[in-house]
Amino acid sequence: MSSTASGKNGTWRNWGGTVAARPAREVTPASVEELAAAVRRAAEDGLKVKAVGSGHSFTSIAATDGVLIRPQLLTGIRTVDRENMTVTVEAGTPLKRLNVALAREGLSLTNMGDIMEQTVSGATSTGTHGTGRESGSIAAQIKALELVTADGSVLTCSEKENPEVFAAARIGLGALGVVTAITFAVEPAFLLHAREEPMPFDKVLADFDELWAENEHFEFYWFPHTGSTNTKRNNRSAGPRRPVGQLAGWFEDEFLSNGVFQAAQWVGRAVPATIPTIAQVSSKALSARTYTDIPYKVFTSPRRVRFVEMEYAVPRQAVTEVLRELKAMVERSGLRISFPVEVRTAPADDITLSTASGRDSAYVAVHMVKGTPYQKYFTAAERIFVAHEGRPHWGKVHTRDAEYFAGVYPRFEEFTALRDRLDPDRRFQNDYLRRVLGP
């Protein structure tokens, strides 16, 4: 186990550049036992403890001035159980590495988000999700997990073992302990057929229920200052596999979606008056296409343009009204929004603080390019989301507090009572958790 300072001048920064922290020390344990010892030592020294993955959260959920745990040595697959169709993986494993390893085994997760840079523990602890009519977040695919609690003990939980912890710890916010291993449900590898095409904003809203019902995975991007969207429908296919061609993939996913888009963001940032025109051009840049491939190559896309993001889950039946209000707000505000708005869905699940806990949900995500003032836009959007009992993504920008969450999560007190039991001295506390969960 190594213990070092973090980054330049001892400062840790997140991917989006919205958070910086100076931990007293940084620890990179090579085993669960070393991690448990680091937690016990922190308690002896009176220091708080936080684990951090790839830093893709835009909130300060992983920030600490105490001990920063980096799990990059806790990686790889522990076991593959083909009888029960599960795989147990170390918590620091990046999703990309997990997906590639599963593909070699002829296996796959059922659903996933749109990036693969996160660690499995970071992604699940903050509620990372993709889009799905019946398949939920990455955390909803967890069958068991292992975590080091505040006293340095190792606790395993599942539906049968410590079920009350399992109900909460799948999306534990880092408040209940440090996750060291996760067991996911998997299934035999399958193919997804992707259909991407432009569609007018008004038509998407008018047909939203039908589009959702007819597709296993439906999502779309709306370009502010336009009446245009780009839609994506993913459904299982018997094949054959027909991936995006190498040249076409580079042109659309790298040159257009990252290179040209980055240049457009720079122009918009320098001359905001050009943004509506840029949005009109951008909304027409990507043409319709179809392809069939293994799941992680369909679900995920490269994201090289750095940005800041706010995302709220609202009741699925409210999403079209939310989007109409959001569009009207942008049109009357004078704001210049250069980044598309992303819309996805998830079915209700039974995880205590999941944004889809107990209700079918739709996600609306607003973005601004890194370095651009975002507060006015996010404040106005958040006002709309909150009016519809929205639940903010735990890893993305928001201003809500424990009082608000107690009102939109029926099982909120169940989570905080479990936290009181597992971490009575608040070893895993930081300013963010104090705000969203209470002291």
CA distance, first residue to last residue: 32 Å
> What's the total helix number?
14
Q: Please state roughly what percent of the residues sit in beta strands, choosing from under 5%, 5-15%, 15-25%, 25-35%, 35-45% or over 45%.
A: 15-25%
Major β-sheet, in short?
Answer: 8 strands, antiparallel
Regions with little confidence, pLDDT below 50 for 5+ residues:
2-9
Mean pLDDT figure: 91
Counted beta strands: 21
Structural class: alpha+beta
* Helix content bin: 25-40%
* Rg estimate, integer Å: 21 Å
- Overall spatial form: globular
Sequence of strands across the biggest β-sheet: 17-14-16-15-19-20-18-21
What does this structure look like?
The chain has 14 helices and 21 strands. With about 450 residues, it is of the alpha+beta class. Residues about 1-10 have low confidence and may be disordered. The protein has an 8-stranded antiparallel beta sheet with strand order 17-14-16-15-19-20-18-21, sandwiched between helices. Strands 7-8-12-10-11 form a 5-stranded antiparallel beta sheet. The protein has a 4-stranded mixed beta sheet with strand order 1-4-6-5, with helices on one face. The protein is globular, with a radius of gyration of 21 Å. Helix 7 packs antiparallel against helix 8 (about 275-285), helix 10 runs antiparallel to helix 11 (about 375-385) and helix 12 packs across helix 14 (about 430-435).
